[in-house]
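Ticket #4471: structure export looks truncated?
Reporter: QA, pipeline team
Priority: medium

Steps to reproduce: submit the single chain below to the structure queue and open the exported record.
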Amino acid sequence: MSEPRIVVDHLWKRFRRGERQDSLRDLVPALFRRLTPGRKEPELGANDFWAIRDVGFEVQEGEALGIIGPNGAGKSTMLKLLNRILRPTSGTIRLHGKVSALIEVAAGFHPDLTGRENIFLQGAIIGMRRAEIARKLDSIIDFAGVERFIDTPVKRYSTGMSARLGFAVAAHLDPDILLIDEVLSVGDMAFQEKCIARMKQFKASGVSIIFVSHNMQAVSDLCDHALSLRSTVQHYGSAQDVIQSYVTAMGSEGGTLGHPDVNIGPVVLRNAEGRDVTTATSGERLQLEVTYTARRDLTGVHFGLLLHRTTDGLLVYDANFTDKELGIRQWRSGEPVTIRFDLTATVTRGQYHFDTHVAETGTGVLLARRNPAMLLRVDELRTWAGIANLAVTASARTTERVASAVRV
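Actual output as written to the record:
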């Protein structure tokens, strides 16, 4: 295998709360720390904190690495280090090839210049030659979808129009390495589809991509590997495994019980043919089998099943089934009960996860919860936005127009 395009090795980045020294006693250690950035085990001062702690990864040619994590986890700091906006406190970054970044894509626009003029300005800022911009001008304008307003000052543009134009310029670079920061917040769903398609073209042409996003569906679609970050690496591996780990960790923080009265698991998701799956098409019939084991004798309980959209945690579905409805008269300690939930994935494309719980029917006291219980990715191409699949069909008919005779 050839040398990786991107190599990050034992990377550390330290920030100080208020870069100010009030005395010679504070100043001398601070200067010493700055002059010795290569120590293997960097130290923290009293007012210092680690934004990035001992992070390492590699990205090969034509691979995409997704970086996910909560706000404040160090994702943007990592991109700034890779883009050489910041210098690491310790560790090394080796980048082989031309680097381009899709970060704050409209930040360089001048409000009094027209869209056309800003294309040339933005292109120059990100390293494109004037002849190259002129050659690609029509394609950039078409990509952004602002043909009617291209000679209007951008101060008259909406935020979405400015962002689309900025992305369109950046999308016509010819990089070896591409750094992307949550560009899927750009524009409407149709334009986001265009963004994803362009990033896939970059990848297919051999560009190495670092993609920071909260959109789990986009990470799953685009990335070969992923990294869950909270200053340090929480999990590194295939995109699907890392998403599973991340959602599980976030679910635990959201209320999964640490010492439940019921053990939940294993959980299996199958399609109509009985094959284990984690991906389905919209409208497909599925079976979710969950095994619950009581840790004490229980009666008068219900079993809940919820579906969340993983990208934003939105609750899509919530249903409950009592033990009586399921024919469970008395549930003894140590006895496993397997419940099969038959369902139809009538949701639009996206990354979802199931959440299941057991609670007392009368009081609602939660006895056990597992969130997420299982990930589900729904593939579907027609819908641009929304959650529910309404199974809409369309038909058209034409009305024959007969021109009336004109009499003089």
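Status: closed, not a bug. The export was complete when the record was re-opened. Leaving a note from the reviewer for reference: DSSP finds eight helices and 17 strands in the chain.
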